[in-house]
Every structure is written in structure tokens, then in C-alpha cells.
């Protein structure tokens, strides 16, 4: 299968048109996906809402809403400011894509801010997603701003822009726990200090 993909033997646009109804894609979502595939095929990078707007009659707001819906339904992914078509390609080939855990960014931000977010702040979160930042990166940037004591959307956006500039994909990737650390922690927990006669 990888060789077929590598040599471009599979026409994903035709597959998308044939499978869009069974995948419960709206006509507008299918159209935007076809535009993204076309832009990707002719080598336009990065693919942004403004690039899509140049070749279609949809408004920027409609394109943004459609892209957010496609990302939320895991048909496309955003990686460091650009769109990734691998999820839709895997779905079209009936391959399982990596299970993405749903994150409620509004709740995460409300916990960090200690208050409810305004409508404007919710729009700012959506704009971060539209810029191509993953949920994990947005949460990492929020954590970084909390650690530095500057909890503002402007600061969070600057952190994300800086990370994108230097190609940081995951700031706080989970580290595997070593077995020896678990053993040491267990020995500390089991230590009977009251039995020690010195």
C-alpha cells in the first residue's frame, strides 16, 4: 500500500467524491477537501483559508467554519501551521487512523484563567486552531504562560508563533517512566523509619 501512495497511484479526489456521502460529509466539506487536495497536488504551501478563498466563491468565514468542522471530525489535521491530509486519506483507504482524544480547550483555558471566558476569548481560541496549531500545542503554550505568570492570549499566541518558527512539534511530550524510578519510589514508600535505631 505504501508503494501505491508513494508513486501516486491512488486518486484520492475520485475516492472522496465516491465515498463522501457514506462518510457523512456535506457538499461544502467535500468541496473544500477537494480544493485542499488540489492545492496540495500543485505544490502550494502552506494551504491557508486565504489560499483556498483565492480559488473559490466561499467567504473566508465559511471556509474557516468548514475547516474547523473538518478538523473536529478528524478528516484533516493541523500540523505546525499547515493542513495534513493523512487522516482523510486513511479513512478513504479504510485504514484506521490514530485515535485522537477530544480536548475541550475552553474548559482548559477557564481552569487556567480561573473564570469563564468571554465570547471574544473563545473566538481567539478558534483563531489559534485556524492558524494550524494543534490542541496539544495550544495547551503547552498555555502551561508555559502560566509558569511565566503572564496569562494572556497575546502571550500564548507569541509562544505558539515562536515554536512554529523553530519547528517545535510538542513542548512537553510525556516521558516514559523508567522501571528503576518506580522501584526507588516503592522502596521510599515502604521504608519503616520508626524501626531505624541510631
How are the elements arranged and paired?
Blueprint: H1 2-6, H2 12-19, H3 27-41, H4 49-54, H5 60-72, E1 77-79, E2 82-84, H6 86-92, H7 105-113, H8 119-130, H9 135-148, H10 153-165, H11 179-190
Antiparallel strand pairs: 1-2
Structure characterization notes:
There is one protein chain. A two-stranded antiparallel sheet has the order 1-2. It starts with a helix and ends in an 8-residue tail after the last helix. A hairpin with a 2-residue loop joins strand 1 and strand 2 (82-84). Helix 2 (12-19) runs antiparallel to helix 3, helix 7 (105-113) runs parallel beside helix 9 and helix 9 crosses helix 10 (153-165). The mean pLDDT is 79. The chain is mainly α and 198 residues long. The protein has two domains: 2-92, Winged helix-like DNA-binding domain superfamily/Winged helix DNA-binding domain (Arc Repressor Mutant, subunit A), CATH 1.10.10; 105-165, Orthogonal Bundle (Arc Repressor Mutant, subunit A), CATH 1.10.10. It has helices spanning 2-6, 12-19, 27-41, 49-54, 60-72, 86-92, 105-113, 119-130, 135-148, 153-165, 179-190; strands at 77-79, 82-84. It is 58% helix and 3% strand.
